[in-house]
From TrEMBL:
It comes from Collybia nuda. Residues 65-246 form the Malic enzyme N-terminal domain. Divalent metal cations. Prefers magnesium or manganese. This is Malic enzyme. A divalent metal cation binds at residues 231-232, 255. It holds the Pfam family Malic_M. Signal peptide: none annotated. Residues 256-514 form the Malic enzyme NAD-binding domain. (S)-malate binds at residues 142, 401, 445. One of its GO terms (molecular function) is malate dehydrogenase (decarboxylating) (NAD+) activity. One of its GO terms (cellular component) is mitochondrion. The active site is at residues 88, 160. Coiled coil: none annotated.
């Protein structure tokens, strides 16, 4: 279907295609004589692989998704581990940085601060109002670890939704990528004549909140069956708008909750292995966070359940967690702290500020070091060696995205721990040979969680997304590893099994929603687990 929409930043009228429709069979003579489907799949793959630069691959796949969505998603599913680094992190980071330059055609919905007071009219331009089920909404203010990218953040919403389709079988026409344009503080973009967004400093504060209130209300009226995923809002607004709307509308924040869930899951598997090696109980883990933004604090909050599930009280669980931010160890005596850091601020440290990560490691004696700081190389060889000196199997998760902002590489972690590291990173690293063994890095990325969490929430038609549903998604992921994956030392399942994993997570999420009483699809309550899993699988769209 092709409809005409005029983006607010465009002078001309452009065609927006929303896909996919069942392709009409071309009339005889309008395609080459021999266009066989499986051969064409090989042709598309060969074209993709012929490109040297990952951004060229991204552009090629964007065009393929537009022109032949069935083929795009089919190849995506068949080659998940090859496609995800292109349509998602790390390449989607480059696509965002260059969006205003590589832009080809409109995709998704752009709503700017200029639309305040008439957001309803803009939303109503969306062509498939009654089909919408999931929207990823960003304001472009903190895209991955790349900072304020303004409307150049749109590819992150698009990329996440492609993973909803590929990974959880959400129908492509049920997805809405949205980028809200509040301006940008990115000087380079403001000066760039090709920049596609409003050329004004970013708006925050009460006016932004008024806009958000109107936006959320109009979304709920226009799309009564829609789940919203907030993505890459800067930390202050990420917490603000999650709390403001989470009990009013079905929504979750991926950076806080999705990341929390995925890291809890990998941590549970790593902690088991680490404790087998050390002989210590699971509850004895001590977790040091490098980075205390929405992702760091979101993960810290979720990791509380690791300890409470292992018998500690909430207070004891909190005492197992330490935060480092740009000014060093976060503790009460340090002075004024941002609201979101207060809960984990240490009350038991009374010395002078400690800023050096090695000194902090010496003081905390952590079993696990988690990076959500956007500082590449922060886990230097000396830092990794210090973790290895304290632990037979140190847990080191450099989780910042994209790859070039990772706190360390897999190779550095392996070489400085004599291969003993339990590793997960935000963006993918290749497996590596160490001695006679092959070691596999984990990818601790919320892409393992949001497709299944979203699918479960959509099918249960929840009124809100509860903490128990997020925790259920995490436990569902942790328990989804096969014997073979455990024997390979993996912390996360292989990404090629994403559909199976998402279905399993969705089942757990639906059950949790039923327990919490937020489900509206009450007919699912009486199904057995086997029936529910079958129902979920039948609902998945297949290219
Ligand atoms: N693996 C995953 O699934 C996810 C990864 N992330 C990544 O997490 C990173 C952080 O995201 P946010 O928390 O939203 O960003 P943020 O900018 O709010 O937080 C960064 C934190 O790092 C701290 N920091 C900065 N420089 C530092 C330094 N030199 N030393 C110590 N601490 C320093 C800051 O004080 C702040 O607490 C990003 O790279 C993002 O891509 C975010 C969500 C999901
Ligand atoms: C993965 C993700 O959501 C982020 O880096 O922001
Ligand atoms: Mg994000």
């Amino acid at each position: 279907m092709t409809i005409i929409l005029t983006p607010y930043w465009s002078d001309g009228v452009q065609k927006l295609k929303i896909a996919p429709q069942a392709p009409a069979k071309p009339k005889h003579g309008l395609t080459p004589p021999v266009l066989e489907d499986s051969i064409h799949a090989q042709r598309c793959l060969a074209q993709l692989r012929s490109k040297d630069k990952s951004i060229e691959k991204y552009i090629y796949l964007s065009a393929l998704k537009d022109q032949d969505p069935e083929m795009f998603y089919r190849l995506c599913l068949e080659h998940m581990s090859e496609f995800t680094p292109i349509i998602y992190t790390p390449t989607v980071g480059d696509a965002c940085l260059q969006y205003s330059h590589i832009y080809r055609r409109p995709e998704g919905l752009f709503i700017s601060i200029k639309d305040k007071g008439k957001i309803r009219d803009v939303i109503r331009n969306w062509p498939k109002l009654d089909e919408a089920r999931i929207s990823v909404v960003t304001d472009g203010s903190r895209i991955l670890g790349l900072g304020d990218l303004g409307v150049n953040g749109m590819p992150i919403s698009i990329g996440k939704l492609s993973l909803y389709v590929a990974g959880a079988g959400i129908r492509p026409s049920s997805t809405i990528p949205i980028c809200l344009d509040f301006g940008t503080n990115n000087e380079k973009f403001l000066e760039d004549p090709l920049y596609l967004g409003l050329r004004k400093p970013r708006l925050t504060g009460p006016e932004m909140t008024e806009f958000m209130d109107e936006f959320m209300h109009e979304m709920s009226v226009a799309f009564p069956k829609l789940l919203i995923q907030f993505e890459d809002f800067s930390t202050d607004n990420a917490f603000l708008y999650l709390e403001r709307y989470r009990n009013k509308y079905p929504l979750f924040n991926d950076d806080i909750q999705g990341t929390g869930a995925v890291v809890l899951s990998g941590f549970m598997n790593a902690a088991q292995i680490a404790c087998q090696a050390s002989g210590n109980p699971l509850s004895s883990h001590r977790i040091l966070f490098f980075g205390a933004g929405s992702a760091g604090v979101g993960v810290a909050m979720q990791l509380m359940s690791f300890f409470t599930l292992n018998g500690l009280s909430v207070q004891e669980a909190r005492e197992r967690i330490w935060l480092i931010d740009s000014q060093g160890l976060v503790f009460d005596g340090r002075g004024r702290l941002a609201e979101h850091k207060k809960y984990f601020s240490r009350k038991d440290y009374h010395g002078p500020p400690i800023t050096d990560i090695l000194d902090i490691i010496d003081y905390v004696q952590p079993t696990a070091l988690l990076g959500l700081s956007t500082i590449p190389g922060a886990f230097s060889p000396a830092v990794i060696q210090a973790m290895a000196a304290l632990n037979p199997r140190p847990i080191i998760f450099p989780l910042s995205n994209p790859v070039r902002l990772s706190e360390c590489s897999f190779q550095e972690a392996v070489e400085n721990t004599d291969g003993q590291v339990l590793f997960a990173s935000g963006s993918p690293f290749p497996e590596m040979k160490y001695g006679n063994t092959t070691l596999y890095p984990g990818q601790g990325n919320n892409m393992y969680i949001f497709p299944g969490l979203g699918l479960g929430a959509i099918l249960a038609r929840v009124t809100s997304v509860t903490d128990s549903m997020v925790e259920a998604s995490s436990l569902g992921l942790a328990n989804s590893l096969t014997k073979e994956e455990h024997s390979m030392g993996l912390l996360y399942p292989q990404i090629k099994r994403i559909r199976e994993i998402s279905a399993h997570i969705a089942k757990e999420v639906i059950r949790a929603s039923q327990k919490a009483g937020v489900d509206r699809s009450t007919e699912l309550r009486t199904m057995t687990d086997t029936e529910l899993l079958k129902f979920i699988n039948n609902k998945m769209w297949n290219p």
